[in-house]
């Protein structure tokens, strides 16, 4: 019997596939999309298997509406990676596949480059004397562009002139719209190195030789202080790959922050380069995806989700700043792009380089146990030198918007010398709470167990957890007093106070509030480069990937909140931030200085970090993790649940706990913690609880989850309560 049933994965939160009848004359392919009826909707799904058997009576099966693809969307290593991710992160296959593709493909758009629209000049337009158009300079501009043989892409021209201008010209019959398919390029044929390369130092040369020695799978952890020439190593590692006509994928934490890096790749090779990031619109996203698949890009640089780009012939993966927390997706498919990238390199059988000045403890552990090759760059390229650093003991000192007098004095010294200063504070807003001076009442969000953050500029109280906003109140809700004070310092308050302390210098604040507008971050970075601002206030955002040569003083003004956090990764993050900023301050002729404000200068971690460096810190931190049975020595899965009914939320996790305890795999090496209320116990009116499962190795964790999940899904409460599994969680809130 000919197979006439397609097993389809659909973007629905269910761990199963669905069977559909194949209609005569339109045969689907495995790995291709089909449109099918599902309840009252039509959904786009992926064919996983073609078969002649179904667990359902054939008569009950519905036929496929339309077959969208004639060929599979993914190569087999990438498809195999996606199915692996679906199992590993306990996320339904249909949802995983849908998540990994551009929005337009999810909606059923054809997976091929469509036609592009162009403007072209007509004969009449060409003959038109420009002098007759003196009063219409925009029209002249368009005619001139198009006369010079430039066929302008629609989007490009629309950026320069209004649609009214274009319409006028069309109405006059002087320009016209054309549609064409873009020509495919064979970049490999013209491959060349387009700039002079610096002479490599010995360490760089050795590193590159190691990476390029083997074109097959190998994972290289490249640990190199900032400015030691890691990017130069990436460029050299890419060279033979591109020369052989293979493509490269480069992952970066945040694209807006890396324009210089992208330009270095553009300058070095005459190879088409595409970027993939959250700022792309749907069309651009599809176009980058296709450029990878159809070999129209030699290099793709992108954030987390770029990992899912298909390639015609991928030759290498680079993960820059591999320790960065943004590589972990915090919702839906909760994957870690660095870990999945290693898995992809394995499946594609190609090398992967993980680069960082401050590798994640997980990666260091993998290097120490021999899973990764550990490569080092210990010297700064060129002749830059490291910054001096010190701690400021602020115990008992008066703090003016968080700044101690010695820090203010130090700032003045650097500013007077014509240099720039960065202050790091990881807290947005004016102040993190408002308190009644008479009775101690705190303004609290009605919907969350959290205080309102005061945003003075916008005259609002905002909840940073659910987004609720309300006007600033002037009376205490509890006693009616009008003495309401702000407690604690946020970036907005710091900015205000700096204007008073340093009226002769300009301050700029870089955080999520101030850079919300598209392009504003780039504008600020440019202005900082041009010395338009002297004092920079930043959250973590400002630490990534920049080099500001005129910044000679960097201060982390509140180190204590990280030292005493209940998140076991907080100290690792602080150490990474410190090393990152210390590496960026100053340059050869202007040595930098880094100052940490703390009430606990004797803290062992700070001491290790300051006097012995990151590796020593990391060694100690790994010993601590081992003793405390924390990752990377154990493996975690975090169950989160939330609902309006607190009892249900806790009961569901209690039942899940019961399922694990009765598992045949349960033994004394497996720990189950909870159910406990989440650190933020109520958000947007919903109660939140957690259950943490800890296993000694990955395999046991995976097997326990795989056995338990179907049982969990059968629990009646699992349908009433919103719940999720986070495998290897990065954030325990
Ligand atoms: P990282 O990525 O580790 O921060 P980069 O590759 O950006 O380091 O190198 C830092 C600076 O040193 C850059 O300006 C780069 O052009 C320069 N550089 C790197 N390698 C060399 C070299 N071998 N000789 C001279 N300059 C180099
Ligand atoms: Zn809230
Ligand atoms: Zn009060």
From TrEMBL:
<comment type="similarity">
    <text>Belongs to the helicase family. PriA subfamily.</text>
</comment>
<dbReference type="InterPro" id="IPR027417">
    <property type="entry name" value="P-loop_NTPase"/>
</dbReference>
<dbReference type="GO" id="GO:0008270">
    <property type="term" value="F:zinc ion binding"/>
</dbReference>
<keyword id="KW-0862">Zinc</keyword>
<dbReference type="Pfam" id="PF00270">
    <property type="entry name" value="DEAD"/>
</dbReference>
<keyword id="KW-0235">DNA replication</keyword>
<dbReference type="Pfam" id="PF17764">
    <property type="entry name" value="PriA_3primeBD"/>
</dbReference>
<keyword id="KW-0378">Hydrolase</keyword>
<feature type="binding site">
    <location>
        <position position="448"/>
    </location>
    <ligand>
        <name>Zn(2+) 2</name>
    </ligand>
</feature>
<keyword id="KW-0347">Helicase</keyword>
<dbReference type="InterPro" id="IPR048949">
    <property type="entry name" value="WHD_PriA"/>
</dbReference>
<dbReference type="GO" id="GO:0006269">
    <property type="term" value="P:DNA replication, synthesis of primer"/>
</dbReference>
<dbReference type="GO" id="GO:0006310">
    <property type="term" value="P:DNA recombination"/>
</dbReference>
<feature type="binding site">
    <location>
        <position position="476"/>
    </location>
    <ligand>
        <name>Zn(2+) 1</name>
    </ligand>
</feature>
<dbReference type="Pfam" id="PF18074">
    <property type="entry name" value="PriA_C"/>
</dbReference>
<dbReference type="Pfam" id="PF21213">
    <property type="entry name" value="WHD_PriA"/>
</dbReference>
<dbReference type="InterPro" id="IPR041236">
    <property type="entry name" value="PriA_C"/>
</dbReference>
<feature type="binding site">
    <location>
        <position position="445"/>
    </location>
    <ligand>
        <name>Zn(2+) 2</name>
    </ligand>
</feature>
<dbReference type="GO" id="GO:0003677">
    <property type="term" value="F:DNA binding"/>
</dbReference>
<dbReference type="InterPro" id="IPR042115">
    <property type="entry name" value="PriA_3primeBD_sf"/>
</dbReference>
<dbReference type="Pfam" id="PF18319">
    <property type="entry name" value="Zn_ribbon_PriA"/>
</dbReference>
<dbReference type="GO" id="GO:0043138">
    <property type="term" value="F:3'-5' DNA helicase activity"/>
</dbReference>
<dbReference type="GO" id="GO:0006302">
    <property type="term" value="P:double-strand break repair"/>
</dbReference>
<dbReference type="InterPro" id="IPR011545">
    <property type="entry name" value="DEAD/DEAH_box_helicase_dom"/>
</dbReference>
<keyword id="KW-0238">DNA-binding</keyword>
<dbReference type="InterPro" id="IPR041222">
    <property type="entry name" value="PriA_3primeBD"/>
</dbReference>
<dbReference type="Pfam" id="PF00271">
    <property type="entry name" value="Helicase_C"/>
</dbReference>
<dbReference type="GO" id="GO:0005524">
    <property type="term" value="F:ATP binding"/>
</dbReference>
<dbReference type="InterPro" id="IPR005259">
    <property type="entry name" value="PriA"/>
</dbReference>
<dbReference type="GO" id="GO:0016887">
    <property type="term" value="F:ATP hydrolysis activity"/>
</dbReference>
<keyword id="KW-0067">ATP-binding</keyword>
<keyword id="KW-0547">Nucleotide-binding</keyword>
<feature type="domain" description="Helicase ATP-binding">
    <location>
        <begin position="211"/>
        <end position="377"/>
    </location>
</feature>
<comment type="subunit">
    <text>Component of the replication restart primosome.</text>
</comment>
<feature type="binding site">
    <location>
        <position position="439"/>
    </location>
    <ligand>
        <name>Zn(2+) 1</name>
    </ligand>
</feature>
<keyword id="KW-0639">Primosome</keyword>
<comment type="function">
    <text>Initiates the restart of stalled replication forks, which reloads the replicative helicase on sites other than the origin of replication. Recognizes and binds to abandoned replication forks and remodels them to uncover a helicase loading site. Promotes assembly of the primosome at these replication forks.</text>
</comment>
<dbReference type="InterPro" id="IPR014001">
    <property type="entry name" value="Helicase_ATP-bd"/>
</dbReference>
<keyword id="KW-0479">Metal-binding</keyword>
<dbReference type="InterPro" id="IPR001650">
    <property type="entry name" value="Helicase_C-like"/>
</dbReference>
<feature type="binding site">
    <location>
        <position position="436"/>
    </location>
    <ligand>
        <name>Zn(2+) 1</name>
    </ligand>
</feature>
<dbReference type="GO" id="GO:0006270">
    <property type="term" value="P:DNA replication initiation"/>
</dbReference>
């Amino acid at each position: 019997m000919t197979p006439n049933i397609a097993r389809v994965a659909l973007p629905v939160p269910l761990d199963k596939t669905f069977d559909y009848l194949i209609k005569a004359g339109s045969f689907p392919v495995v790995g291709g999309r089909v449109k099918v009826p599902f309840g009252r909707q039509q959904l786009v799904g992926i064919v996983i298997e073609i078969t002649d058997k179904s667990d359902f009576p054939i008569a009950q099966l519905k036929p496929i509406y339309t077959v969208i693809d004639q060929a599979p969307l993914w190569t087999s290593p990438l498809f195999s990676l996606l199915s692996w991710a679906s199992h590993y992160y306990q996320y339904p296959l249909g949802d995983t596949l849908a998540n990994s593709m551009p929005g337009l493909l999810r909606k059923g758009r054809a997976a091929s480059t469509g036609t592009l629209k162009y403007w072209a000049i007509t004969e009449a337009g060409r003959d038109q004397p420009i002098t007759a158009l003196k009063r219409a300079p925009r029209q002249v501009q368009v005619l001139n562009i198009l006369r010079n043989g430039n066929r302008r892409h629609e989007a490009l021209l629309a950026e320069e002139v209004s649609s009214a201008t274009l319409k006028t010209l069309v109405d006059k019959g002087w320009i016209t719209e054309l549609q064409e398919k873009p020509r495919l390029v064979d970049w490999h044929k013209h491959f060349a190195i387009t700039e002079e390369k610096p002479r490599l130092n010995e360490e760089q040369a050795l590193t590159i030789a190691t990476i390029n020695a083997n074109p097959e799978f190998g994972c290289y952890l490249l640990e190199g202080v900032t400015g030691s020439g890691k990017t130069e190593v990436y460029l050299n590692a890419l060279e033979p790959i591109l020369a052989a006509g293979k493509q490269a994928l480069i992952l970066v934490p945040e694209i807006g922050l890396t324009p210089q890096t992208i330009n270095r790749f553009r300058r070095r090779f005459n190879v088409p380069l595409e970027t993939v990031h959250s700022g792309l619109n749907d069309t651009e996203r599809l176009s980058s995806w296709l450029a990878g698949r159809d070999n129209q890009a030699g290099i793709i640089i992108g954030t987390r989700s770029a990992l899912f780009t298909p390639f015609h012939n991928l030759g290498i993966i680079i993960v820059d700043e591999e320790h960065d927390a943004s590589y972990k997706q915090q919702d839906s498919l909760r994957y870690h792009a660095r870990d999945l990238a290693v898995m992809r390199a394995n499946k594609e059988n190609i090398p992967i380089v993980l680069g960082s000045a401050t590798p994640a403890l997980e990666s260091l552990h993998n290097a120490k146990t021999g899973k990764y090759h550990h490569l080092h760059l210990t010297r700064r390229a060129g002749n830059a030198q490291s910054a001096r650093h010190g701690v400021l003991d602020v115990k008992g000192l008066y703090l003016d918007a968080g700044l101690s007098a010695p820090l203010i004095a130090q700032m003045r010294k650097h500013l007077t010398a014509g240099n720039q200063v960065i202050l790091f504070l990881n807290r947005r807003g004016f102040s993190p709470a408002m308190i009644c001076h008479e009775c101690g009442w705190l303004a609290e969000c009605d919907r969350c167990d959290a205080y309102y953050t005061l945003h003075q500029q916008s005259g609002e109280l905002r909840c940073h957890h659910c987004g609720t906003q309300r006007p600033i109140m002037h009376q205490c809700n509890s006693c009616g007093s009008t003495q309401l004070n702000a407690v604690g310092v946020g970036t907005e308050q710091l900015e205000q106070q700096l204007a008073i302390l340093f009226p002769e210098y300009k301050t700029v604040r870089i955080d999520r509030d101030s850079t919300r507008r598209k392009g504003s971050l780039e504008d600020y970075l440019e202005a900082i480069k041009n010395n338009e601002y002297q004092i920079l206030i930043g959250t973590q955002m400002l630490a990534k990937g920049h080099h500001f040569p005129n910044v000679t003083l960097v201060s982390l003004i509140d180190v204590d909140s990280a030292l005493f956090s209940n998140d076991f990764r907080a100290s690792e993050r602080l150490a990474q931030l410190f090393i990152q900023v210390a590496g960026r301050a100053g340059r050869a002729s202007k040595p930098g200085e880094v100052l940490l404000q703390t009430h606990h200068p004797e803290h062992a971690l700070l001491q290790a970090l300051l006097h012995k460096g990151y590796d020593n810190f990391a060694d100690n931190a790994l010993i601590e993790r081992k003793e405390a049975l924390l990752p990377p020595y154990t493996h975690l899965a975090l169950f989160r649940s939330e609902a309006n009914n607190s009892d249900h939320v806790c009961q569901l996790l209690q039942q899940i706990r019961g399922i694990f305890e009765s598992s045949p795999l349960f033994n004394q090496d497996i720990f189950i913690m909870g159910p406990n209320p989440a650190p933020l116990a109520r958000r947007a009116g919903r109660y939140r609880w957690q259950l943490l499962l800890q296993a000694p190795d990955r395999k046991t964790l995976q097997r326990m989850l795989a056995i338990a999940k179907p049982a969990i899904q059968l629990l009646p409460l699992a349908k009433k309560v919103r719940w999720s599994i986070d495998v290897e969680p990065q954030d325990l809130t």
